């Protein structure tokens, strides 16, 4: 499968727009919307508790938890569809993932703020594979040392984005809110924990 290399400095970002066909992606979206154990969670930002502006769920083939923003995610076991997607992603990424953090953005008001996936349990140069299903949403990158260095990428239905090497050291990313009317979007981020 041919990747689009974003070619941003201090990073390796590979985008596969048609990782899944539109038909397959529709099928997966409907199945996962129903099968994932979606939860609304509270996170702590600058000492204050807030409801996360999205629903989440965490899956793993081990018992390792994933903590961020004072939220400790306990893993659910993988089920067949999610395991199959993990295997499809592994063929392209060339690694075996242990874990998957799933996000559900219910509408344009749901979002994911500026962050790097740099928690210690991910290791030094984490590889993260991110599958998008449902509504197309923009994803933004901003260099940590030069905020002028930015990039915007439309994450399309059925696409895969791989972030690896030193990307998380040098770049933050976000999925901003949008004023436009948008349908639900599911994002699956496969990780090694
Ligand atoms: O929804 C997305 O595309 C990004 C999710 C993300 O950055 C994360 O879960 O760490
Ligand atoms: Fe992230």
UniProtKB/TrEMBL annotation:
| SUPFAM superfamilies from the UniProt entry | Clavaminate synthase-like
PROSITE patterns per the UniProt record, alphabetical? FE2OG_OXY
Q: Taking every annotated instance into account, which residue ranges of this chain make up the domain Fe2OG dioxygenase?
A: 96-193
- Pfam families found in the cross-reference section: 2OG-FeII_Oxy_2 (PF13532)
Recorded hits in InterPro entries, A to Z, give: AlkB-like, AlkB-like_sf, ALKBH3, Oxoglu/Fe-dep_dioxygenase_dom
Q: Could you identify this protein by its name?
A: Alkylated DNA repair protein
